[in-house]
Amino acid sequence: MTRILVIGGGAGGMELMGKLGKRLNRRSDVELTLVDISSHHIWKPLLHELASGSLDEGLNAVDYRAHAARNGYRFEQGEVIGLDRFARRVTLAPQTDARDKVLVPERTLEYDYLVLGVGAVTNDFDIPGVKDHCEFLDLTQQAMSLRQKLLRRFLEQARAERPEPFNITIVGAGATGTEMAAEMHHVAEILEGYGYAVGPEQLQVNLVEAGPHVMPALPKPCLREAVEEQLEELGVQLFTGTRVTRVDARGLHTQNDQMIPSDITIWAAGVKGPQVLSKLGLEVNDQNQLMVEANCRSLSDSRVFAFGDCAACPQPDGSYTPPRGQTARQMALMIADNLLRLLDDEEAPLKEYLYKDLGSFVNMARFHTVGNLFSFIRGGIAVQGCPARFVYASLYRRHMLALHGPIKGLALLALNGMQRWFRPQLKLW
Ligand SMILES: Cc1cc2nc3c(=O)[nH]c(=O)nc-3n(C[C@H](O)[C@H](O)[C@H](O)COP(=O)(O)OP(=O)(O)OC[C@H]3O[C@@H](n4cnc5c(N)ncnc54)[C@H](O)[C@@H]3O)c2cc1C
User: Fold this and answer.
1) How far is the CA of 275 from the centre of ligand 1 (A)?
2) What is the pLDDT averaged over residues 87-114?
3) Residue 137: CB within 6 Å of ligand 1?
4) Tell me, what's the pLDDT at 376?
5) What pLDDT score does 357 carry?
6) Is the CB of 5 under 6 A from ligand 1?
7) Per the confidence metrics, is the pTM higher than 0.85?
8) Which residues contact residue 235 at a Cβ distance below 8 angstroms, ignoring those fewer than 6 apart?
9) Contact (Cβ atoms closer than 8 angstroms) between residue 143 and residue 48
10) How confident is the model at residue 428 (pLDDT cuts 50, 70, 90)?
11) CATH fold of 2-120+273-344, please?
12) Is residue 324 in contact with ligand 1, taking CB distance under 6 Å?
C-alpha cells in the first residue's frame, strides 16, 4: 500500500485531489488522503466577496468530505503542526469546540509521499500594531468575521443621528486590496438601495501602497492607469509611494509622518509562508516558503513535494514562481502527474514546472474589470470591460468544473447564476 498525504485543499490542492482521485479510480494499493484545517473549501480569490457579503458561502463552499467520497479519497480535518520526516509522519493539532473542549486529540498520519499546499498568510513585515489593529483575509473564517464587523459598522453608521464619514483603509494595492476597495463602495451602494442611510458619500475608502502604482502585477501602464481612474471615480483615496510604519487604534502612521485615520484597516500587503513551515525541518527561504526543485520536490526530502503559495520553485531565468492562483493550479496538476509516474516506477524521471503567465485580472465589483491576457506571448493582450469580466469569471467557472465535473459543475454554475436573481445582493448575517 502506498500512502499519499496531501496537506491543504485550496486553489491547487482541490484540483490535485480531483485529478488524482479520478486517475487512481479507488485503486486498492494506494491510499489517498487530504488534510485541511477547514471542513469546506472556498476559492481564495473570492474571499473579499465573502467578506463584503456579496458572496454566499452556502452556494459556493465545497464540503471536503462530500468531495472526497465522490472522488475516491479520504478527508481528515485538522491543522498540521509537525513533521517527523524520518518516520514519515505528520502531526495534527487536537480539534476543539468553541469552548476549547477537545473533540479529537492530537494525532499522527503516516505517508509514503507528502504533498504540501498550505498556501500563504499575509505578511505584516513585523510593522508595529499590524497584528493587533488590522483585519486579514487569509482564511474563510477571517473573511466571515470581517463581514460581521463591516456590516455592523455600516449599520451603526446608518442609525447614527449625525453620521460622520467613516474610514476603511486597505493596505496593499495588489488584486486583493484593489478589489476590496471597490467592493466596499459596492456594499455601500446596495445598503443605500435597501434604505439604509449609508451612501458612498459617508464612506471614505483609502488604499495605501508602498510602490509607485496600484496593481503592480499588471504589466502595461495603460491598464494600471485604468484601474487608478476607476478607483478615483469611485472616490477611493489613493496613497501610492506610501510606506506604513505603525498602526494603532486611530489609524496608520506613514514614513513621512502622515496619519491616515482608519476605523477598519484591512492588511493585504504581500504574503509569506505560514509559520508552521519553518518548524518542519525542510529548507525554507526568507519568506518562509518551502524551497523545491523544478519538479516541486523539496530540496531537503525527495518524499516531500510542495506547490502554490507555500513553495518557491526555480525558473530557468533565475526567478521563482509567483504566489498566484494559476501557479498553484498548474503546479498541483503537474505534481499529480509526477505522483502517478512514481507509483509505477520509483525512479521515473519527473516533469519540471515552467510557469506560464496566462494573464492577470482585477475585478472592481460591478464597476469595471481590467486585465492582461496571455502575458507569456509578447506582453499579452490588454482587455477591459465586458470581455475582461468574462475571462475573470471564467477562471472561477473552470475551477468549479474541475471540482464537480462538467455536468454537476455546469448545473451548479447555472443555479448560482439564477440564485443571483432571487437572493438579496448582499448577505447581511
Ligand atoms: C482576496 C484575494 C484575492 C485574490 N485574487 C487573486 C487573483 O485575482 N488572481 C490570482 O492569481 N490570485 C489571487 N489571489 C491569490 C490566490 O488566491 C492564491 O495564490 C491561491 O489561492 C494559492 O493557492 P494554494 O493552493 O497555494 O493555497 P490556498 O488556496 O491558500 O489553500 C491553502 C489551503 O491550506 C489549508 N491550510 C493552511 N494551513 C494549514 C495547516 N497547517 N494544516 C492543514 N491545512 C492548512 C487552508 O485551509 C487552505 O484550504 C487572491 C487572494 C486573495 C486572498
Assistant:
1) 15
2) 94
3) yes
4) 81
5) 87
6) no
7) yes
8) 185, 200, 201, 203, 204, 205
9) yes
10) low
11) FAD/NAD(P)-binding domain (3.50.50)
12) yes
Question: Which of 44, 62, 76, 91 maximizes ligand 1 atoms within 8 Å of its Cβ, making it the mutation to test the pocket?
Answer: 44
Decide whether any atom of ligand 1 lies within 6 Å of the 48 Cβ: yes
Q: Is the dihedral of CA 238, 242, 247, 250 positive or negative?
A: negative
Q: Is 325 close to ligand 1, i.e. is its CB under 6 Å away?
A: yes
Longest distance between any two alpha carbons in the chain, whole Å: 73
What digits encode the pLDDT tens for the residues 191-205? Answer: 888 877 776 677 899
Cα–ligand 1 centroid distance for 23 (angstroms): 24
172 CB near ligand 1 (under 6 Å):
no
Do the two domains 2-120+273-344 and 124-270 of this chain adopt the same fold? yes
Report whether 324 contacts 358 (CB < 8 A). Answer: no
Helices (H), 279-405: 325-344, 386-404
Cβ–ligand 1 distance for 44 under 6 Å, the answer yes
H helix intervals, 194-278: 221-234
Q: Ligand 1 atom closest to Cα of 268? A: 53
Give 167's strand partners: 204
Distance 45 CA to ligand 1 centre (A): 7
CATH of region 124-270: 3.50.50.100
pLDDT at res. 113: 98
Under the banding of pLDDT at 50, 70 and 90, the label for residue 429 is low
Domains of the chain by residue range: 2-120+273-344, 124-270
